[in-house]
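Explain my protein.
***
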Amino acid sequence: MQTVSRQLVTIIAEPVVEHRLVDDVKQCGAKGYSLGHVTGEGVTGSRSLDLTGPSIRLETVVTDRVAEAIMDMLTAHYFDTYATVAWITPAHVVRPSRF
């Protein structure tokens, strides 16, 4: 089996930005994404279900260029305003045209 390198971008954000975040990630070039609702704890304390609901976790597998565009977009429009964290993890995929 031959694989191709891509990047897994994972974003955890407050639920109020869900639809906007999906649109922005797609505008950056992501061909698809997975989205789930999560709870957890970080440096600011625990985050659980409240009036706005649980946090969201958006994951997308993309090229290096798209991963960089997503991180730039998050830096410009999300990190300073919303409870948002993100990271990039190397991924090896088959059928690279899907990503």
In short: The chain is about 25% helix and 40% strand.
